[in-house]
Fold this protein.
Amino acid sequence: MLDYNLNETQIQMVELARKIAREKILPVRAQLDETGEFPWEIIKVLAEAGLFGIYIPEEYGGLGLGNFDNNLVVEELSKVCIGVSVSFAASGLGAYPILLFGSDAQKKKYLPDIAAGTKLAAFGITESSAGSDAGAIRTTARRNTDTYILDGTKQWITNGGEAETYSVIAKTDKSRGARGASAFIIEKGTPGFDFGKKENKLGIRASATRELIFEECRIPRENLLGREGMGFMVAMKTFDQTRTGIAAQAVGLAQGALNEAVIYAHERKTFGKAIISHQAVQHMLADMAAQIEAARALTYQAAKYCDSGAKDMSKYSSMAKLISTDTCMKVTVDAVQILGGYGYMKEYPVEKMMRDAKILQIYEGTNQIQRTVIGQYLIKECAGKKIV
């Protein structure tokens, strides 16, 4: 890969994440995929290594670094298994609403445990009839003196049931559409808060995906994030930061698939020579390598741009997710093709990688939605005569 001039701290984090991926994740990767067991032992190792607090300010127990630094770790873990890496990254998805919109008291209460990895976080916005259309959510939160009472369900929530801290979007004013949504912090164990069954998924099977169920769930008024009506903003500003993390998952997974394909192409012989000697295979591998490096460059730059606090970060985080995840899907399919019949067998990891890749084009906003976000920015720029 290109030299991205990482500093000493970043290089050390990458090496540490790579060591954990190879020594702790790789030996159990196939087993975790087969059983769907949540990787608690690996989560504990990542916590002990201090990796959960990379993006959290030092005053709340973190390292005070940024999105880009965290994504370097996500990429390394994803080279081996995104079922594990998404369990790690999704805690950040649940933490960012608190980090971006929480009061100092809320940050002091919740962020240190998340930074330490002793408690995982999760984010709940998706419902059966409200995925990309956040304005269509039906979960409600009605105010009652000094409490809010939540009713409804959230669907397909990563880390659902395993996390202790949940950032959840609910309607406080149904008449206002997306502007009537608000964000809340809800703790596992709160009466009226329960979970559905663990979903049996195509890929990322080691991660936990469950429904969140709220039935007369009463939470303190101080668990409101920001102000009423800010829920949609909380969600969108959170995704601005975390979508580059999905791109990092995609880059890592694609790189892992390419590595497997190159190794196999060196070892597999046809007509008396390794298949990597055949031009057709060389061209496939060359395209895979070039596309991954292009996706990595965009992902890295977009993450740095988001860390800068730029106003139009949504455009570039969407571009990074779109390009990297589409690239990952193509690369993993091509890796299976290069391995041929072996690629289709569970004894080889590329079939798992292909199954895992598909979700990257779906969660945190489908790639069709990313194109819409980018298109809307282009319309605004054209109207403002910013196009060069």
